[in-house]
Description:
Helix content is 22%, strand content 29%. It has helices at 60-72, 90-95, 119-131, 162-175, 192-199, 216-232; strands spanning 14-23, 33-43, 48-52, 80-85, 137-142, 148-150, 153-157, 179-183, 202-207, 249-253, 259-261, 266-270, 277-278, 283-288, 298-301, 306-312, 316-317, 322-327. The strands form three sheets. The protein has a nine-stranded mixed sheet with strand order 1-2-4-3-5-9-7-8-10, sandwiched between helices.
Amino acid sequence: xxxxxxxxxxxxxxxxxxxxxxxxxxxxxxxxxxxxxxxxxxxxxxxxxxxxxxxxxxxxxxxxxxxxxxxxxxxxxxxxxxxxxxxxxxxxxxxxxxxxxxxxxxxxxxxxxxxxxxxxxxxxxxxxxxxxxxxxxxxxxxxxxxxxxxxxxxxxxxxxxxxxxxxxxxxxxxxxxxxxxxxxxxxxxxxxxxxxxxxxxxxxxxxxxxxxxxxxxxxxxxxxxxxxxxxxxxxxxxxxxxxxxxxxxxxxxxxxxxxxxxxxxxxxxxxxxxxxxxxxxxxxxxxxxxxxxxxxxxxxxxxxxxxxxxxxxxxxxxxxxxxxxxxxx
Length: 329
């Protein structure tokens, strides 16, 4: 059983707000707990949805969108239940970092978690063992964080269950982001979408810009997409203002050849931009050895053709840093 507690009764109608109380004994607080904010709205039987952000603490677009929704949404506007977890990895979100400063862990690489593990492992365990089993769908709002910038997009992973994969695809289309893709190939079993697969529910993720900031366009896409997704799931009535279906590219992302990495330390000069169409073997970036300027820069190349959907933000790079990744129609 999870050691995390809350006073929220997930089966009670109405609006409830509280914290997940994550036990954390430290020098300054022997019997302390870390607060993870949670909002639950229920209006009778119906679809059950978990909305998450702050899985990575330096991804702010989802945290703002879900905080605004948590403040404004009323039980009489929904059918069923909506659980809102706007800063899932609360220590990381408070610090504005990808990983938790408490234990150094990345929540999206900790599932299924551990009831008696470190704080991040305990959060992952609570989400997978308590929240996901009582939901029909989860939407996990990500962006590129401090190190990456994405085209505004949604994504799903290919499920071995054709029916679940089709329902996830329909939810992705309903969100109607400018780009959407399916993750193919090797599976990351420690991520939230793998946890959802184990629990037999559908999962939708987003990558809404990034760069460690909140852009008005990304926030508009997130808020509109969440309303459309909740309407598609039968939780809310459709908003006539969101009725138009905007252009969207359906794509796929595979394994290692879709990504470009730095092979040396230095300063990164991009040779392409987001949404550029590139060919196999095309130069992607120059890595300038500024500490030994008499050396020629290292040239990184794309291993295959595709569209640039993700690009690194910081100029300084180390060997192994991701510079770009591609998607194909």
